[in-house]
Design brief:
Elements (H helix, E strand, L loop, with lengths): L25 H16 L4 E3 L9 E4 L6 E12 L2 E5 L7 E7 L2 E7 L5 E7 H14 L9 E6 L8
Antiparallel strand pairs: 1-2, 2-3, 3-6, 4-5, 5-8, 6-7
Bound molecules: nickel (II) ion (NI).
Length: about 160
Amino acid sequence: MAVREIRTMGDAVLGKVCKEVTSMTPRTKMLIEDMLDTMYEAMGVGLAAPQVGILKRIVVIDVGEGPIILINPEIIETSGEQTGGEGCLSVPGKAGQVTRPNYVKVKALNEDMEEVIYEGTELLARAFCHEIDHLDGHLYVEKVEGELYDAAYEEEDE
Ligand code: NI
């Protein structure tokens, strides 16, 4: 188990556009394992590679239904709308109201570089959007309606 340091807002790495992953290497496999360890240790529901300082298009998510690994993810379909509290491991202790699609379909590669499709609603749809935004250097705070507030324990950190 290797838990990596989570970069926080103000760190320039969080504003950068990440590069596509072109092949799976032992180093990238280790990064993915470390991202999962880091997310679980921090009790988050998602983590993107730039949050541990690596500018690669890799996301891990677990909304309580087991780990999802997304490499080079793309949102290919959305519908509906949901507004709710959102947090981020890179913005510790804070949360804010963000509107996201209520349904999101994602195309990505898995750890074996095979194409996978995931569909999510509610929290999973929100996590897809939030984490994929990280890969383009965007934080949820840019989308917050109103002010950031101190996170309650029940807020989910992504
Ligand atoms: Ni985040």
